[in-house]
Fold this protein.
Amino acid sequence: MRSSRLPAVKTLETFEFSFQPSIKREQIESLHELNFIDRKENVVLLGPPGVGKTHLAISLAIAAAQRGRRVYYGTLIDLIASLEEAQAAGRLTRRLAVLTHPSLLVVDEIGYLPINRSGAVLFFQLMNRRYEHASTVLTSNKGFEEWGEIFGDDVMAAALIDRVLHHCHLVNIRGNSYRMREHTELYRSLQSEVEAAEPARRTRRSKPSH
Ligand code: ADP
Ligand code: MG
């Protein structure tokens, strides 16, 4: 846990499945049994901001650490920055070996920021080494069809996706942001108050416009 660089403590116990009905609870619980790590399979969590991708990636990493597995967390940008720094210092091979070693690597936030070509090449090298060697949990707010744009190279992105998906559990989350839930509730309660106060206006509005 100390060397994992996890940004927060998030566990399965604190995850509210009721808030995110598009998530299959059994799939998430069975992933937390961690057989995918023994099988060197990957997990990809896709979905818009705030739906719990990072939460679930961290809870998988914590579960693995608790079972004595070596885990490491980084955002895509941070991982690439550390590879670039190592390359500049002539220590790329060593750094790649270090990042290939953990039984579970979390690559968080693919897609929020674009990657330059040399960064994309470095990340591809890392994922190529981890392929069929150790599990990676990846999160993205963008669908695979947009990964070419993120990595600035359609061919490399396709090769990356091919390796990632070969042995992979896909968790596609469609839903509202948990970060915004209080605002959503506030919005809904204000809206129902307005509607209760103005039944005539509501009826007018709900009529078809043609
Ligand atoms: P994402 O990575 O998809 O943008 P996060 O995992 O960072 O979203 O979630 C945003 C915040 O909301 C975090 O504090 C997270 O712990 C919390 N959160 C998200 N979804 C849930 C949920 N279903 N139950 C409990 N907490 C949640
Ligand atoms: Mg996140």
